[in-house]
Automatic annotation (TrEMBL):
SUPFAM superfamilies: P-loop containing nucleoside triphosphate hydrolases (SSF52540). Pfam families: ABC_tran. InterPro entries: AAA+_ATPase, ABC_transporter-like_ATP-bd, ABC_transporter-like_CS, ABC_transporter_ATP-bind, P-loop_NTPase. This is ABC transporter. It comes from the Bacteria. Keywords: ATP-binding, Nucleotide-binding, Transport. Signal peptide: none annotated. One of its GO terms (molecular function) is ATP hydrolysis activity. It comes from Prauserella muralis.
């Protein structure tokens, strides 16, 4: 399998002197073509900073990022990003189809080709026939599907997703997770998805990269040994899923002492404090993310 993304010795510092803050420390990893890699890390560890460096939105203090061998220096044309906050990334005054078509304006495509791609991408995400509606006429989950369609319509070499399902209800989240895996398997997309939800990282990923607390460094790079076809109920109840989720929780908490998690998802009694702490860290991260989505490029399609 060819390598799509290479991150070599990446460091990023904000500020300088006394106010210097190291957000990312010495990150090195690759993502292979066609892989869905999940990055999971605690709140504030530097996940978004890492994605900003990969997407060329900020220049790393040290190290390099390569996309299909080319050094990233500015936002690559064949990279797309899906953010958590769909309501700020879709243009309310454009129809759904026009939103999906919008970033294609910069590609050498005729109007008919742009329209064709938009219609096709909306079909991929299960939204045929809504092209003439406006985003605000759709549910939150549907709006996020439109954001995903807009990213896919560009046929990106790499799709970056920053907590893409953190703002929708649990049922919709499950549907969108399944949609993403279906689209990825069907179209061989290469995806790097950041989340602070352990279960989501294991359910979605072909691989899970676990980050440390701030500054982010890689604690583990784990292959997900689950069948390619996943099911929200059967997969999550399987022993392979439960054991991997427990391993990731232990790594995230950093103690390495948290014990097994029961098949029902509750930590085994003697290990409850560690596992619960890991979960609490992540719940806190969820709350912080919901409360503060500032800092992401607003109203700008990617
Ligand atoms: N522009 C900035 N200037 C200074 N510090 C920043 C800036 N952006 C982020 N930071 C700091 O860098 C650290 C990492 O932030 P980042 O947003 O990358 O983390 P994160 O893991 O994505 O957080 P969360 O899980 O809450 O989304 C934090 O301590 C944050 O305060």
């Amino acid at each position: 399998m060819a390598t799509m993304l290479e991150v070599n010795g990446l460091n990023h510092r904000y500020g300088s002197g006394e106010s210097e803050h190291v957000a990312v420390r010495d990150l090195t990893f690759t993502v292979e073509t066609g892989q869905l890699a999940c990055i999971v890390g605690p709140s504030g560890c530097g996940k978004s900073t890492l994605l900003r460096c990969i997407s060329g939105l900020i220049r790393p203090s040290d190290g390099e990022v390569r996309l299909h061998g080319d050094e990233v220096d500015g936002v690559p044309e064949d990279l797309a990003v899906v953010f958590q906050d769909y309501s700020r990334s879709l243009f309310p005054w454009l129809s759904v189809r026009q939103n999906v078509e919008f970033p294609l304006r910069w590609k050498k495509l005729s109007r008919a080709e742009r329209r064709e791609r938009a219609v096709e991408a909306l079909e991929w995400v299960g939204l045929p026939g809504v092209g003439n509606k406006y985003p605000w006429q759709l549910s939150g989950g549907m709006q996020q599907r439109v954001s995903i369609a807009r990213a896919l319509a560009r046929r990106p070499a790499l799709l970056l997703m920053d907590e893409p399902f953190a703002s929708v209800d649990a049922q919709t989240r499950f549907e969108l997770e399944d949609l993403l895996r279906t689209v990825q398997v069907k179209h061989g997309s290469t995806i790097l998805l950041v989340t602070h939800d352990i279960d989501e990282s294991v359910y979605l990923g072909d691989r899970v990269l676990v980050l440390s607390k701030s500054p982010a460094s890689i604690v583990a790079d784990l292959p997900v040994e689950l069948p390619a076809e996943r099911d929200q109920i059967a997969t999550r109840a399987s022993s392979a899923f439960v054991s991997m989720r427990s391993e990731v929780a232990k790594l995230l908490h950093g103690s390495g002492t948290a014990g097994p998690v029961t098949a029902e998802g509750a930590p085994a009694a003697e290990d409850a404090p560690e596992a619960e702490q890991a979960r609490a860290d992540l719940t806190e991260a969820d709350a912080a993310e919901q409360a503060n989505t500032a800092g992401e490029p607003a109203s700008k399609p990617h």
